[in-house]
Design brief:
The structure holds 2 protein chains of 2 kinds. Chain A contains 4 helices and 11 strands, in the order βββββαβββββααβα. By secondary structure, chain A is an alpha+beta fold. The N and C termini of chain A lie far apart (40 Å). Chain B folds into 2 domains: 5-175; 187-262 and 275-310, 2-Layer Sandwich (Alpha-Beta Plaits). In chain B, helix 1 crosses helix 4 (139-152). The chains are: A alpha+beta, B alpha/beta.
Amino acid sequence: MSDSLVFMMGQFEATFPTDRQYARNHMWARQQDPAYRFGFSAYAVRLLQDVYFLDWIVDPGTPLQPRQEIGSIESKKAEASLYAPIAGRLSAFNPELLDDPSAINVDTYGIGWLFEIQSPIPDLPEGDAMSGLMSAQQYIAYLDEVWVATQRTIKGQLA
Amino acid sequence: MKPEITVVVAQGPSHDPTKRTREQEIADRLSGRGDWEVLVVPHLNDLRPDAASLAALRQRTGHLIVFSWLYPRAAHWILDRHRISGQRGTTRLQLDTDGKPSDEMPSDPQQEPVERVIDIRTVPTRAIYCIDLRACTSADAVLQEVERILTETGKSASRSSVAASEGNGSRPWRSITDDTQRRWYPVIDFARCTNCMECIDFCLFGVYGLDESDTILVEQPDNCRKGCPACSRVCPENAIIFPQHKSPAIAGASSSIDGLKVDLSQLFGKPEPDQHAKQIAQQERDQQLAASANQSSSSSSTVPPSQDAPRRDTSDDTSDDLDKLINALDQFDL
């Protein structure tokens, strides 16, 4: 595998390959012409832990607005709705995950990919926080900002 | 002779091993009794009208005790839509801890009583007890509750005969399989519905219709747009349930229930809760409309903005979503 950067979540080393970009909603993005392929970042997977169930509420071909709700996930530790990381047209979901989502835990940067979006924006502006994508380095800086708040949130919900 | 009580264990759609284990444990623990039979069926929400499981349940005219990974209201009205009807039994196994039956509408003494659809309908006298598997943390408690219901419905075998039949394993549970795919549709809680027709006016996809007595019904559930719960938000009585919706209020919970798991939705991009229900409903419906228009004419790749939906504020790029989440936690109306 190519180079990657590390972010420490407590004792846990979350690694982020530098061969791809990252969205603010903790998904990685990799251009696979003509679409962007998305999956969970190691940060998201660490918070979720074992994924048990994945459900999509839009069909392939659906045009998406950024942060439009597209599905939901259930894991050992969490439940969450999932939202579009960027605008575009949803072109495919990873069919393997519907029967067995465990590939997300086994190989989150590879066969555990989630979906593909064809974006109408030819070049996404780097680091445009709402709809754009960040480099691994920018993403780690972003995680630095939010890590304390994330921990507070999770502890708050568990209290 | 068929036992007069049927216990149904409806499996969840999830791969969660703890859920699978719980289903199995409950089915095992309740099996081997002469007083009731145990049927294991797929996820109730995903059954199609011609499912073998539903046909089997329609044949059972005695009392039903239905365990599922759904809110009891959702399970009850899904069955009702499939012509498996009865009086709602109140179970002691409930998710919330305050001890009250959680499903009742808050009654306002100032208000004139309103006629509900259920008041003008004939419902069989047999009881249907829907029990949320999330509330079944102990197989012993489940067995106790089923025995309590047996007594409550007056069909109790004596304690000694229950004890005598214990462990002989003569009646193992029976499993009915159906080919299921995930489904998304509304069900109407007719104990709440007043037949006001707001939903049929609002929905643009032809989901709703009227029966021969001009009562609202979910006529074409598969016309429903996946993920769109908009009609539920416009219903003045909160009578429309989307059993698979993430939000407990829409999925059929009736009082505040906190999930047992952390909700990470905000982490994955959930917008702030700054919109009124009606605006959200219109936005959801219009998104669906745009999506279906778009699929029929695939030339355009952008979504026309809705006329009446508010524009989402995109100027808050620099503020921190998670800080907002912390502020928003206080306002969660779960």
